[in-house]
Amino acid sequence: MKIMNKIEYIIRKIGRKPMLRQIAIIAPILVSFIIMTISCDHKSANLLTLKARFQSELDMLHYQYKFPGATAAYILPDGTIEVIASGLADVELEIPMTPQSRMLAASIGKTFVGATVVALAQEGVLNLDDPISKWLGDRPWFSHLPNHNMITLRQLLTHSSGIANHVDMEPFIHAFSENWHSTTNPFPPESLIAFVLDQPPLFKAGEGWHYSDTGYILVGLIIEAVTGHSYYEEVNRRFLKPLNLTLTTPSDRLELPGLAAGYMSPDNAFVLPPKTTLRPGVMAWHPGLEWTGGGLVSNPKDLVIWAKALYEGHAVKGNYLKDLLQSVPISEDDSNTRYGIAVAIHENDSLETTYGHSGWIPGYCSSLRYYPRYGVAVAFQINTDIGIVDGSTQLFRDMENNLAKVVIKQENRRIKNNH
Question: Which residues contact 224 (CB under 8 A, 6 or more apart)?
């Protein structure tokens, strides 16, 4: 009876909204309440599929936090994949989010950068512990780079180079706010490096940790210098095509088919419009400035496939995981998190060890996590950064923990039954 009362209240509350909006709001809530009702009976709960419980959890998070929309996926040890969606891909046009919707993956793209370098190391093309002067020393700006004569390639990849992050610097923020209207990329790679030149290092190379997109831009230049190909050619040839990641493409242009609109605060630091798209699949500002700091538009289905291949040792030929997971502490105050080559390694009391990466770019937030004990990966993307980038809500943490627990609970049950 209480469930029916809640449903009636919700129907009355949204009754004046346009019909498509009513459907987008009420349908997942109805499903969630039905599932919750069935779950009260332990025998009936066993009839629910994992996908239904996963969908119910995402719908409840959508109802609780009222973000525009999200997509999420998981992959199981046997390779089974499910991808779901909730909410709207475009609020104004009332376009539903679908399992095929794409969003900017932001810094999750670094995992492809790191894998490319590790592959080149496995092939003997480069050495991770060589100084970066070996490849970049002839650039006219190189001697103005903080710690230029001390930094190794591995230190760039683990954010232990002592180079600042241009994204956080006031001159870059001002320049971006002044130039985002450009229909071409206003910040090619070497122009981004210019923001940190002649700045004092944050610490001696190898003796600290500071997240730096600038460091990964330098890595991109090294990849292209070593291979003679563009970074995107390398990542497509090595990973996107072989793994059939058809929903993942470079975010190097304004038109990105299937892209959901992203939403941010009207008073965002970059003075960007609060909606990322001009019309479906067309960005209002050029995302190409991210390049090897992220640089991909993707979907959780592709991301979980990628995580399983990467962290189970199948993405690159050879025994590369030792290099990938060789890590440094991110802080003296956080003994539970370390950072390897484009991988955050978390020790979590409830979920144990996880490998993965998160991503933020104005209007979009993404998460990718692999759980080695269980052989499963979970990923999600949200088309807003409101309440996330400023840390004012627990949305992102709740999404990571709650969705993963649904899948891991199922795996625990399977493991117990097999024993």
Answer: 230, 231
What's at 387, amino acid-wise? Answer: G
User: DSSP secondary-structure letter at 263?
Assistant: B
Tokens standing for 278?
Answer: 């001009």
Domain ranges of the chain: 1-48, 103-418
Task: Note the helical H segments in 269-334.
Answer: 300-311, 321-325
SS (HEC) of 31-43: HHHHHHHHHCCHH
Cβ atoms 75, 377 nearer than 8 A: yes
CB of 311 within 8 A of CB of 372? Answer: yes
Cα separation of 275 and 254, whole Å? 14
pLDDT digits (tens, 9 = 90+) for 42-99: 433 433 699 999 999 999 999 999 999 999 999 999 999 999 999 999 999 999 999 9
Task: Produce one character per residue of 148-172: b if its CB has 16 or more CB atoms within 10 Å, e if not.
Answer: bebbbbbbbbbbbbbbbbbbeeeeb
DSSP letters spanning 152-209? BHHHHHTT-S----GGGSHHHHHHHHHHTT-SS-S--HHHHHGGGTTPPPSSSTTS--
Contact status, residue 404 vs residue 371, Cβ threshold 8 Å: yes
- Residue 239 carries which DSSP code? I
Domain 103-418 top-level CATH class: alpha beta
Its pTM surpasses 0.85: yes
Q: Cα dihedral sign for 282, 288, 290, 296? A: positive
Spatial separation of the C-alpha atoms in residues 411 and 127, rounded to whole Å: 39
Q: What angle do CA 25, 29, 32 make, to 5 degrees?
A: 155
